[in-house]
Amino acid sequence: MSTAGKVIKCKAAVAWEPNKPVVIEEIEVAPPQANEVRIKIVATGVCHTDLYHLFEGMHKDGFPAVLGHEGAGIVESVGPGVTEFQPGDKVIPLFISQCRECRFCKNPKTNQCENGWAADSHDVMALAESRFTCKGRKVLQFMGTSTFSEYTVMNQMAVAKIDPAAPLDKVCLLGCGVCTGYGAAVNTAKVEPGSTCAVFGLGAVGLAAVMGCKAAGAKRIIAVDINPDKFEKAKVFGATDFVNPKDHNKPISQVLMEMTGGGVDYSLECIGNVECMRSALESCVPGWGVSVIVGWTDLHDVATRPINLMLGRTWTGCLFGGFKGKDGIPGMVKAYLDKKVKLDEFITHNMTLDQVNDAIELLKKGKSIRTVMRFSPQ
């Protein structure tokens, strides 16, 4: 029986309040309105940004919400005015819109968009409007996506259509972590062949950054993490050297300076820690070193001495690896299908939505790289 035009009741993981376990609830998902599509989510990754909202950001206006922003699914129905999608299309929801009309979308220098939740709600991490209700209450859509739900409703400007051959339980990782790290290396840092790179933090984003550095032709890729268990995994993605800051009694920037004869050409901070951001910058060679802030945080200022920039280093950052979503994700899906980009190797655990709190705990304790939660057969 067709569900188009009707309210769908389905399971979702609702975060009723910060710093508490999420709860599996039956929610109501309204039909798509003008320029919207309703998506049946097939699989979703669990990303540190979900944990950030729940345990670190904890903005009082950001709850209750359905978390999740790294998903993939199939279009169930479309609202009036939608021409780009039709029921049955395989898609990846985007947490950064691409309206193609605003000044940012028209500028090749950025992937920002003036439309969508991120334009003015980055602190709350959700728009006030939502198609979700639960127990008579409105439930927010986290990062405009909410992939910890069996169904979600998105504006068509925040959805990327992908190859129908793509396995959704793998390519869902392109919805955030893998594109974020990989793109930081190839799009933002613009790593050059023969260069030396340092990647701080070996979660999914950091490992994807390592993979991006290798794809760009870096000669030496130094992986930095306080968890030595992650070093073998980093080798799979192309790391050549490993440094555990706990093994040294001097600043990590000094260690890297000494290892490289004056500093790395590129550094990427993939943790979301302002002290590590400073260390990453100060690990770069003066004159031309580039340091990219990749890890998400919005709690503290970041600082360094002016001389560190006056000597010619560049300090920059990116969201979603600089990819314009509608344009970039289909290419990354193709790269995976052509075996030019790894995805399977990021997945350490497979679970169901009912196990979401277990997946959150694994990531919180550093015991997983990516857990993929599967909802239904593709």
From TrEMBL:
Family that this chain belongs to: Belongs to the zinc-containing alcohol dehydrogenase family.
Name the record gives this protein: Alcohol dehydrogenase 8b
GO biological process, alphabetically ordered: formaldehyde catabolic process
Gene3D superfamilies to which the protein is assigned, alphabetical: Medium-chain alcohol dehydrogenases, catalytic domain, NAD(P)-binding Rossmann-like Domain
Pfam families found in the cross-reference section: ADH_N, ADH_zinc_N
Organism of this sequence: Oreochromis niloticus
Swiss-Prot/TrEMBL keywords: Metal-binding, NAD, Oxidoreductase, Zinc
Domain called Enoyl reductase (ER): residue spans: 17-373
Needed cofactors: Zn(2+)
InterPro entries according to UniProt: ADH-like_C, ADH-like_N, ADH_Zn_CS, ER, GroES-like_sf, NAD(P)-bd_dom_sf
Keyword Zinc: yes
A GO CC term attached to the entry: cytosol
UniProt-recorded Gene Ontology molecular function terms: S-(hydroxymethyl)glutathione dehydrogenase [NAD(P)+] activity; zinc ion binding
